Amino acid sequence: MKPGARLAASLVSLGVVVFVGALVASWAQDAIAPWRNVGEAETGSPITFHAADTTYRVLASGPNHPKVDRIGCDINLSDGTTQRILGGEGSVAPNDRFGVSRVIEFEAPAGAPTTVRCEDRLSPRSTAGRMQVVDASGAMSSVALVGGLIGTALVLVGIGVPMLAARRASG
Asked: How far from each other are the two terminal CA atoms of the chain, in whole angstroms?
């Protein structure tokens, strides 16, 4: 194997490992949410917390929580504004990992009280599952984002190096 090919294979392999690590960090962020949240309640009950000026994510957990597309969340921000966001809308990519689902993301200004109430829109009186509000701009989000970008870059460089070498050799 040529030295350039060995370097390219190493870069691609490292890129895949870093990218998979970023996916694990993204999953871990959701999996540890029940223990690292700013507030938690049964579905249909309010979650009140003191918000920082940041992005928050609402997660649904528990074996019987409603499907993301059935959830609607009312958010009362500390500045007096109110929002209604339906599950899966906006900047969040809805997914379900080991019983934890990303529902919505929202920006909140600093202040208290900030209240989030999420319900099953098809069965508003249902209390199945739990809702957690987590800081979406925390360290794990940064690790997942940076790791995903670095992993992708390493794979692209690993593929691009031999292609450039082949082009130079043929040209």
From this structure: 22
Q: φ and ψ at 127, to 5 degrees?
A: -115, 20
Per-residue pLDDT reduced to its tens digit, 17-76: 887 887 777 666 666 666 778 999 999 999 999 999 999 999 998 878 888 889 999 999
Q: Which amino acid is at 50?
A: H
Q: How far apart are CA 107 and CA 4, in angstroms?
A: 47
Q: What is the CATH number of the domain that holds 41?
A: 2.60.120
Please tell me the distance from the alpha carbon of residue 15 to that of residue 10, in angstroms, as a whole number: 8
Q: How many domains does the chain have?
A: 1
DSSP H helices, the chain, are 3-31, 139-170
**Which residues make Cβ contacts (< 8 Å) with residue 115, sequence separation at least 6?**
46, 47, 48, 75, 76
CB 90 within 8 A of CB 57: no
pLDDT at residue 165, as a whole number: 72
CA–CA gap between residue 36 and residue 48 (Å, rounded): 15
Please count the other Cβ atoms lying within 10 Å of the Cβ belonging to residue 156.
13
Residue 147 lies inside a defined structural domain of this protein: no
